[in-house]
């Protein structure tokens, strides 16, 4: 019998591979969580993601996290952070999106909280301190979920992120004995222990309130949030349907302006940053007795781009020294140091840019045969020191590698941050949502 099942699985695998190159014996239970930043609906130009553009993704997503709701500044109630878009009577976006469940019945849609988009992150700690605030939050969350037909809440709780490690420049070298000063080890939160317990209480109370109607409660650990400081993994996991580790943005040009490096490596790059990789974060949760199937690995559908200077060397091999902060913004995402996947793609060598010069000259692309660190592309500065760029990014290959990692470790799934940064228009290769598809194919 066992042999028969194995044989059938292999056969289906082989046939599947012939029929379509994306259906190689997927694990059907694996989650594919699609983060959807609804503010992308209001963008101008090529960055605008319409509801029609959204549809080709929905067949792949098991869950969508609608971003974002946030905390009321005074009373801790959960509120829309974009009321004009979300709530507008009759044709509000909350309802437009949850109505997609009629056409895609497998899809679960969660209301995302915080996600790094709410102002005054301090209130995410202070509200925890009184049970009356937690109650106000829970009651308002329950009402929003029920009224707008969401399936639950995803807590992208805005704990304070780690401070970046400083790079030792020439002055730093002199001071290197004073390690504390330069390693950014200062205390993030004096009351961290207390807040950790209170956060467990919040999640427990929220889950208890949601249980009768089967609403789900999940957690997103935002980039650079240190789980060991704020989250009691062992105590909290029973109340969570799953947790998504946004294990990317470890190095960014905003946090680390003077040194470019892989933003989201799967494994340890060097001894200096042993925690700055996906595997460390996953292992931390596993060690805290979180079941593997509850853990989703988040991947960024964008690159982080630094300006290379004349002193950054010519090899492009990271870490790149003496960078000058954020590279210029992309044409549609308009954010310095940040390039969505289609924006990165348009800078890689292709027939239409091969003869261009200066700021439009193609970057040189370097893949990752080790499958451990990620991929990057760069352009060394010209003779005047202009137009240098180094970008570390996720492409279909590396997104697929992370999905393979998830599958090999028996984890719960992959989460894409977010749909609006993937190539939803198919501008790069003609395929819409290539990163999402690649992840789905290898889960
Ligand atoms: C996270 O916090 C622990 C202490 O709880 C500390 O040892 C570790 O270095 C911190 N990680 C980062 C990346 O700051």
Can you tell me about this structure?
There is one protein chain. This protein has 443 residues and is α/β, with parallel strands linked by helices. It has a single domain (29-182, 189-300, 394-442), classed as TIM Barrel. The chain has helices at 2-19, 51-58, 83-86, 93-98, 100-103, 123-126, 131-147, 170-174, 179-182, 192-210, 227-230, 233-236, 278-287, 341-347, 396-408, 434-442, and strands at residues 31-37, 63-71, 78-80, 108-114, 152-156, 216-221, 242-245, 259-260, 295-300, 302-306, 320-321, 338-340, 364-366, 375-379, 389-393, 413-417. It has an 8-stranded parallel beta barrel, surrounded by 5 helices. The protein has a 5-stranded antiparallel β-sheet with strand order 12-10-15-14-13. Strand 13 (364-366) and strand 14 (375-379) form a beta hairpin.
Question: What labels would you give this structure?
Answer:
443 residues, alpha/beta, 5-stranded antiparallel beta sheet, binds 2-acetamido-2-deoxy-beta-D-glucopyranose
Which structural class fits the helix and strand makeup? Answer: alpha/beta
Helicity level:
25-40%
- Strand order of the main beta sheet, please? 1-2-4-5-6-7-9-16
- Beta-strand content: 15-25%
Radius of gyration: 22 Å
Number of domains: 1
Layout of secondary structure:
Blueprint: H1 2-19, E1 31-37, H2 51-58, E2 63-71, E3 78-80, H3 83-86, H4 93-98, H5 100-103, E4 108-114, H6 123-126, H7 131-147, E5 152-156, H8 170-174, H9 179-182, H10 192-210, E6 216-221, H11 227-230, H12 233-236, E7 242-245, E8 259-260, H13 278-287, E9 295-300, E10 302-306, E11 320-321, E12 338-340, H14 341-347, E13 364-366, E14 375-379, E15 389-393, H15 396-408, E16 413-417, H16 434-442
Parallel strand pairs: 1-2, 1-16, 2-4, 4-5, 5-6, 6-7, 7-9, 9-16
Antiparallel strand pairs: 2-3, 8-11, 10-12, 10-15, 13-14, 14-15
Helix pairs in contact: 7-10, 15-16
Bound molecules: 2-acetamido-2-deoxy-beta-D-glucopyranose (NAG).
């Amino acid at each position: 019998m066992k042999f028969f099942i194995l044989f059938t699985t292999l056969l289906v695998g082989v046939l599947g591979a012939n029929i379509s190159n994306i259906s190689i014996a997927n694990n059907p239970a694996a989650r594919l969580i699609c983060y959807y930043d609804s503010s992308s609906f209001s963008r101008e130009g090529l960055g605008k993601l319409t509801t029609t553009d959204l549809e080709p993704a929905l067949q792949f997503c098991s869950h969508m996290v609608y971003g974002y709701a946030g905390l009321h500044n005074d009373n801790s109630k959960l509120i829309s952070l974009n009321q004009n878009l979300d709530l507008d009577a009759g044709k509000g976006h909350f309802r437009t999106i949850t109505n997609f469940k009629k056409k895609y019945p497998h899809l679960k849609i969660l209301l995302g909280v915080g996600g790094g988009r709410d102002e005054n992150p301090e209130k995410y700690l202070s509200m925890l301190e009184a049970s009356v605030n937690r109650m106000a939050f829970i009651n308002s969350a329950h009402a929003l979920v029920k009224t707008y037909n969401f399936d639950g809440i995803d807590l992208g709780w805005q704990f304070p992120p780690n401070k970046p490690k400083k790079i030792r420049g020439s002055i730093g070298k002199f001071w290197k004995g004073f390690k504390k000063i330069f390693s950014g080890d200062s205390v993030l939160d004096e009351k961290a222990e207390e807040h950790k317990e209170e956060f467990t209480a919040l999640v427990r109370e929220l889950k208890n309130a949601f249980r009768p109607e089967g609403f789900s409660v999940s957690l997103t650990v935002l980039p650079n949030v240190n789980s060991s400081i704020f989250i009691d993994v062992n105590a909290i996991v029973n109340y969570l349907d799953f947790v998504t580790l946004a294990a990317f943005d470890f190095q960014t040009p905003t946090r680390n302006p003077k040194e470019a490096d892989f933003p989201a490596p799967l494994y340890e790059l060097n001894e200096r940053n042993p925690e700055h990789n996906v595997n460390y974060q996953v292992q931390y949760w596993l060690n805290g007795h979180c079941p593997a199937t509850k853990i989703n690995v988040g991947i960024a559908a964008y690159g982080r781009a630094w300006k290379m200077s004349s002193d950054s060397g010519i090899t492009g091999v990271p870490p790149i020294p003496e960078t000058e902060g954020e590279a210029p913004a992309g044409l549609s995402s308009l954010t310095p140091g940040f390039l969505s996947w289609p924006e990165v793609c348009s800078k890689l060598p292709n027939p239409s840019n091969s003869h261009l010069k200066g700021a439009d000259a193609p970057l040189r692309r370097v893949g990752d045969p080790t499958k451990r660190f990620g991929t990057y592309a760069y352009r060394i500065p010209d003779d005047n020191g202009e137009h240098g760029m180094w970008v570390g990014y996720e492409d279909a290959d590396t997104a697929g590698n992370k999905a393979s990692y998830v599958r090999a470790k028996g984890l719960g799934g992959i989460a894409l941050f977010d749909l609006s940064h993937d190539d939803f228009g198919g501008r790069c290769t003609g395929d819409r949502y290539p990163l999402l598809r690649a992840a789905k194919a290898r889960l």
